[in-house]
Amino acid sequence: MKLRIFSTEVEVSYALICIAAICIILKIFDSMLWCALAITIHELGHLCAMIHFGCAPQKIKISAFEIKIVDSKRQLRSEKQNILIIFLGPAANFICFIPFYLLYLTGKGCFLPFATANLSVGLFNSLPVLSLDGGQLIYILLCKRFSSAKSEKLVNLLTFITIFPLAALGIAVLFKSKYNFSLLFVCAYLIISLISRNNRFI
Predict the structure, then answer these.
(1) pTM of the predicted model, to two decimals?
(2) Cβ atoms < 10 Å from Cβ of 97
(3) What pLDDT, on a 0 to 100 scale, did the predictor assign at position 192?
């Protein structure tokens, strides 16, 4: 399904619609909705910064597992602009987490899932993995001192150091809980995203 918002083409995969329908049937739509809202807030952080710098994306692709922003103007922007664009993704989640968690502390428990979803998305995207915002920020900072090839090798090393213990912990959690494979799913997603990254910042 495709639509156009100003100069940006937005594409929504039919797989996402099918997954939403399945979640409704299985009565887990609320959990999916909180996560989807947190991811949307994360991407809006990137988008607001891009629009502020006058470089709206050409295309936004919303699939079952990610929101992909097609940005061909990153090489035309300054280093500080790219850093700000990347940083504002996780920052938007952390900013949203604070007021909703404070509301939860006042006794309004209905706000906890949304606060938790924002904190999780913010922390996840801050991991030093090259396909995530944390890894992209580290890569840009390393490029100030090293070549792009060496900087990428260093971030790839950080990525391995991050994913390996996560995978080991995921296996331990799976054996202990007998059914909780969420951490292994996260590791698999990170590995797949690295393979299909294609040198994109957002």
Answers:
(1) 0.81
(2) 22
(3) 75
